[in-house]
Amino acid sequence: MPLVSMRQLLDEAAKGGYGVGAFNVNDMEQIQAIMAAAKETKSPVIVQASRGARAFAEDLYLFKLIQAAAELNPDIPIAMHQDHGNSFETCKSAIELGYTSVMMDGSLKTDGKTPSTFEENVEVTRRVVEYAHPRGVTVEGEIGVLGGVEDGHGAGGSGLDHITDPDQAVEFAERTGVDALAIAIGTSHGAYKFTKKPDGSVLKMDVLIAIHKRLPNTHLVMHGSSSVPKDLQDVINQYGGKLKETWGVPVEEIQLGIRNGVRKINVDTDNRLAITGAIRKVFAESPEKFDPRDYLKPAREAMQKVVALRMTQFGQAGHAGDYSPIPITEIAKGYADGSLVTRPLVAAK
Ligand code: 13P
Question: How many angstroms does the Cα of residue 224 sit away from the middle of ligand 1?
Answer without folding.
Answer: 4
